[in-house]
Amino acid sequence: MAEKLWIGTSWKMNKSGEEARRYAQRLAGTQGAKHVQRFIIPPFPYIREVAELLEGTDILVGAQNMHWEPSGAWTGEVSAPMLADCGARIVELGHSERRTHFNETDDAVGRKVKAAIDHGLIPLICIGETAAQKLQGEADHVLKTQVEAALSFLEDEDFKNPLLFAYEPVWAIGDGGTPAPPDYVRARHARIRKVAVELSGQPVPCLYGGSVNAANCTELVTCPDVDGLFIGRAAWSVEGYLDILSRCAIAEKRKTTA
Ligand SMILES: O=C(CO)[C@H](O)COP(=O)(O)O
């Protein structure tokens, strides 16, 4: 088990500036559990303001994507140094929505992971199999390929920096998604951990994401090899996020003191 539980949310392409501000202000006034690392990932335009509102708290702010080059003729793209300048500390890479709708390849994810580390950002690398791949019994093979590609540009030195995976089965994500059963999550996380340790020489924390909610969060977060949760819809209201945080903090504390 990693030292801290990582529990965070990406807002995807949601919220007005006012809603983003109110969420951050409310969150800034709350106290996190010592063993939980909280993080939120707003859309690009809100990163700086949200980061400023959360300055001095334990909450890290992230971005949902970036380019691998630090600058250049890449119209419409955003680079790692720009994100860091806005106050981002984490960057989400390879989410299935980007892989599906924006043709993001394993190679591009690998380049982005390297660039993120080079510029002091924590990559949160999203991996996961589709429903068809699961049905064909290919889940472990897909996950291994994605982990290998994500780490393929890194050198030994790079593994001294923090790095996170989020296992998000594509069939579990969003409206119409079904949360993965805990036994299934446990098996996939064990596999991801094994591959990541072989490549990096150390355990890489891996979060679970996909239809996480208040009812299933404690069972998921206490699965062996699950180092946190990456939440979408259920944490888009700040009260929803705080509810999941407190349930997980209690469950984890019970587990460690048992
Ligand atoms: O990105 C995700 C978590 O932020 C993921 O897609 C899960 O979304 P959810 O199914 O709405 O929780």
From TrEMBL:
Matches recorded under SUPFAM superfamilies: Triosephosphate isomerase (TIM) (SSF51351)
Domain of life where this protein originates: Bacteria
Alphabetically ordered keywords of this record: Cytoplasm, Gluconeogenesis, Glycolysis, Isomerase
GO molecular function: triose-phosphate isomerase activity
Gene3D superfamilies: Aldolase class I
InterPro entries recorded: Aldolase_TIM, TIM_sf, Triosephosphate_isomerase, Triosephosphate_isomerase_AS
Similarity annotation: Belongs to the triosephosphate isomerase family.
The name this protein goes by in its record: Triosephosphate isomerase
Organism: Nitratireductor basaltis
Lineage summary: Bacteria, Pseudomonadati, Pseudomonadota, Alphaproteobacteria, Hyphomicrobiales
Originating gene: tpiA2
